[in-house]
């Protein structure tokens, strides 16, 4: 049954992919389906990309919620483009690295069901994600046994008592031990117990018999090699004591392994639950007895409920639970009660070795007084806790975590409490591991979705400042509370603080001021996050100095403001701070600094995600740098090809408008110039080199500089163009043909102006008279750069007061809208309406007409040169 439906349509443009992801995410979160949001977003991203990018049509996205799951349909209008699926015994999508078919690979991997449907006009690709099952738990019965089912023992149960001194040598051996193993006391006293003990080598357990003898209490199974050479399995209970001389020793109570009930401590539920257990009957689930019902369905809720129940079960003052890392070398704090959880959350301690190691993680341990063994439990240092019991969480022999309960009074816990807590830990270990793996999978999929969106955003800009801002905004507050980005210009430069962001905008200025005062972190090209104490040390030192001044214990001058601002900054950077190098193309181009507030730590998963993000951000930042450098160089070179400011021509108005096609281009294949030749005479030119871009701009520079040089040497118009034609042909393969209108201008004393022009393959100049008539002012002649021998001639034109001469490049006349083109006739119509306008107004009206002729931006360079002889009233 369909319970909800949402639909949206997206245009065939690249940004629609991100918009579709946002639509699906918002829809499913609005329906409260956070468990499957990340999978749905990743699949939608791939399928919409196929529709709007590869198929090139609009995409319809429909989300349908039913009783059992959510179905998402993506439709495009290109059914002829088949999905790359082959059904000869299975699906074949090609290699995962190929662009085609990756969306279907993900569907096959993540979706519960998926499929493709075709109609005459549409292709529909759909997938369904079922709601995750909520495990009901495994129930185990524990009925009261009849007498006939009780374990059978011999007529007399023998308990061997063996005492071992501090060096591991046997110092006492009772009669029952002699009966059990066949040794007389004189045969074994003075020998190491390790000569007799056959200790089991359990994978993942590093504790041997020597280590077990050093523990205050221990219970377990091992073997004793008897006088006949056979190994007898025994169940042992060890108690470490001090003898009459004060020397430590261990008393070992040994029974046959099948009689372990004689020594084994009873595994009981929580205190006060006995009556309740009896009432519930034999089918009571030990997990639900400990956790309660209903059990939390999320990892954090399950862990928090676990520590609270463990604390209550042993009547403790505090409890905590740590989860092991994948390599089991560290334990990470995930839940606590009665302790400063915000301060300790996600803190890590090593398991086996190093300062502050958590040496008792792999087996139960009881510490009667922590003051006697400082640092034995790093998590409880300076918390006021004196006694603690800890037990491991294990799944199939693998350490997955540690559960501890602590009390402020010493001597509160014994081996019995350890066994009770271990019983509870065994009941919840598998559930915790399942929830942990589910969370890791959710985080992995969320990370994938995060990186997909981050990559889209970073790839969408080549602006350096915008890239820096995106880097910071993507990490705060998702991965960190604050962020700083340092950039490195080159290997000889010091890192420069380029961007600072804090989740609280009021803290940004204080944080930036603090970071500006301290040395930047060291540049290390190796990957991975490393700690940095610089901000913490500087902030707390500044806060201390400010506090002392405010109390008049330091400098006599009282600060203008109290210590509040310094203390706030110290609190903001008081947690863990890490530095990730930004490495692109084997060079350190910067550093990404992430920080937490007071006493908070990063999750390892977030650090790994930050590393992935830093690699993508580094490449995006370097691309922005290269693009900015290339653009700056290109624009500098292009500006050198533009003529300087137009000269003031007495008695003639001159106006030029120039537009180069292409992003970042200031000069293309079109060019113009107006320059003085000699007293009273000016040269002007407007031309068009075949093509656009840098190659055309190179010929532009050659033409403009050659025109000035030849004209000032006294050559007339035809001679100037013939020599320029030879220079272009000398360029060989790099030459481009060129259309050029060149002329010389002589203002006259009577208010008119005489022009001599040569039009070499260029659009003809147009003359606008005062009566509104328009006529061509020259005749066409061959273009330059094609043939060696040119015979050019110049024509004389006289502009009377009020007349206008308009010169344009073909980017104006060839402006298109579909099959329509502005053309010479359209330009004449525009010019006819310009009677009485100044040269600047004429050029502007022509430009507006060209821009309005079509909706798309111009695809060709344009140059417009207008010259007008003003009427006497104008001057």
From TrEMBL:
Q: Which UniProt keywords apply?
A: Hydrolase
Pfam families noted in UniProt: GAF, GAF_3, HATPase_c_2, PAS, SpoIIE
Question: Could you say which residues form the signal peptide?
Answer: none
The question of whether Hydrolase is a record keyword is answered with: yes
Q: Which InterPro entries match?
A: Bact_Sigma-Reg, GAF, GAF-like_dom_sf, HATPase_C_sf, HATPase_dom, PAS, PAS-like_dom_sf, PAS_fold
List each copy of the PAS domain by range.
Answer: 161-191
UniProt protein name = PAS domain-containing protein
């Amino acid at each position: 049954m369909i319970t909800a439906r949402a639909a949206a349509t997206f245009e065939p443009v690249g940004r629609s992919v991100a918009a579709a992801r946002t639509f699906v995410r918002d829809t499913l979160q609005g329906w409260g389906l956070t468990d499957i949001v990340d999978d749905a977003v990743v699949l939608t991203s791939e399928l919409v990309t196929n529709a709007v990018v590869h198929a090139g049509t609009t995409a319809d996205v429909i989300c349908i919620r039913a009783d059992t799951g959510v179905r998402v349909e993506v439709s495009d209008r290109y059914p002829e483009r088949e999905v790359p699926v082959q059904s000869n015994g299975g699906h074949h999508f090609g290699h995962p690295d190929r662009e085609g078919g990756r969306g279907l690979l993900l569907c096959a991997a993540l979706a519960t069901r998926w499929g493709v449907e075709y109609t005459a006009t549409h292709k529909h690709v759909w997938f369904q994600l079922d709601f995750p099952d909520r495990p009901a738990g495994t129930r185990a019965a524990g009925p009261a046994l009849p007498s006939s089912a009780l374990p059978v023992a011999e007529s007399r149960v023998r308990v061997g008592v063996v005492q071992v001194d501090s060096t591991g040598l046997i110092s006492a051996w009772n009669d029952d031990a002699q009966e059990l193993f066949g040794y007389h006391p004189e045969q074994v006293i003075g020998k190491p117990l390790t000569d007799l003990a056959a200790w089991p080598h359990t994978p993942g357990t590093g504790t041997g018999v020597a280590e077990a003898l050093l523990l205050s209490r221990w219970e377990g199974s091992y073997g004793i090699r008897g006088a006949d050479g056979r190994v007898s399995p025994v169940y042992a209970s060890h108690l470490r004591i001090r003898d009459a001389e004060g020397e430590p020793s261990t008393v070992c109570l040994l029974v046959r392994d099948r009689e372990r009930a004689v020594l084994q401590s009873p595994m009981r539920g929580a205190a006060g639950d006995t009556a309740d257990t009896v009432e519930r009957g034999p089918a009571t689930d030990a997990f639900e007895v400990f956790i309660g019902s209903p059990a939390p369905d999320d990892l954090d809720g399950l862990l928090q409920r676990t520590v609270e129940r463990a604390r209550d079960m042993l009547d403790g003052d505090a409890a905590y639970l740590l989860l092991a890392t994948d390599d089991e070398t560290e334990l990470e704090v995930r839940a606590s009660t009665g302790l400063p959880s915000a301060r300790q959350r996600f803190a890590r301690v090593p398991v086996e070795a190093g300062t502050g190691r958590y040496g008792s993680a792999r087996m139960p341990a009881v510490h009667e007084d922590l003051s006697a063994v400082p640092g034995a439990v790093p998590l409880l240092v300076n918390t006021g806790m004196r006694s603690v019991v800890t037990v491991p969480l294990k799944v199939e022999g693998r350490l997955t975590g540690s559960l501890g309960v602590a009390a402020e009074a010493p001597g509160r816990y014994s081996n019995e409490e350890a066994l009770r807590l271990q019983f509870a830990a065994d009941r919840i270990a598998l559930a915790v591991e399942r929830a942990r793996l589910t969370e890791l999978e959710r985080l992995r999929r969320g990370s994938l979705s995060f990186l997909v969106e981050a990559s889209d955003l970073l790839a969408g800009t080549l602006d350096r400042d915008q890239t820096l801002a995106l880097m910071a905004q993507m990490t705060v507050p998702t991965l960190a509370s604050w962020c700083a980005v340092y950039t490195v210009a080159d290997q000889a430069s010091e890192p420069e603080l380029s961007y600072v962001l804090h989740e609280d905008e009021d803290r940004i200025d204080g944080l930036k001021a603090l970071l500006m005062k301290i040395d930047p972190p060291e540049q290390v090209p190796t990957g991975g996050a490393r700690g940095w104490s610089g901000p913490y040390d500087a902030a707390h030192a500044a806060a201390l100095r400010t506090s002392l001044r405010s109390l008049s214990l330091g400098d006599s001058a009282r600060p203008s403001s109290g210590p509040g601002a310094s203390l706030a900054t110290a609190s903001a950077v008081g947690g863990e701070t890490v530095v990730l190098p930004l490495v692109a193309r084997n060079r350190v181009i910067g550093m990404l600094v992430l920080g937490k507030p007071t006493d908070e730590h990063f999750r390892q998963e977030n650090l790994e995600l930050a590393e992935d993000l830093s690699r993508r951000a580094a490449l995006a930042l370097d691309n922005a740098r290269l693009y900015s450098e290339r653009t700056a160089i290109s624009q500098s070179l292009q500006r050198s090809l533009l003529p300087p400011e137009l000269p003031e021509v007495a008695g003639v108005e001159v106006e030029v408008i120039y537009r180069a096609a292409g992003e970042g281009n200031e000069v293309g294949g079109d060019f113009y110039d107006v320059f003085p030749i000699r007293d009273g005479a000016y040269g002007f030119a407007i031309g068009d080199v075949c093509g656009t871009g840098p190659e055309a701009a190179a010929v532009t520079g050659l033409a403009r500089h050659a025109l000035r040089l030849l004209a000032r040497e006294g050559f007339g118009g035809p001679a100037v163009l013939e020599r320029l034609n030879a220079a272009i042909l000398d360029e060989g393969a790099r030459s481009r043909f060129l259309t050029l209108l060149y002329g010389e201008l002589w203002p006259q004393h009577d208010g008119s102006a005489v022009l001599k022009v040569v039009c070499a393959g260029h659009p003809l100049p147009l003359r606008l008279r005062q009566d509104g008539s328009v006529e061509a002012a020259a005749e066409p002649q061959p273009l330059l750069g094609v043939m060696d021998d040119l015979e050019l001639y110049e024509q004389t034109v006289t502009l009377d007061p009020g007349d206008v001469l308009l010169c344009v490049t073909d980017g104006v006349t060839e402006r298109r809208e579909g099959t329509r083109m502005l053309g010479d006739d359209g330009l004449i119509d525009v010019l006819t309406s310009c009677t009485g306008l100044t040269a600047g107004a004429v050029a502007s009206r022509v430009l507006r007409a060209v821009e309005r002729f079509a909706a798309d931006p111009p695809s060709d360079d344009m140059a417009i040169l207008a010259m007008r002889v003003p009427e006497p009233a104008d001057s």
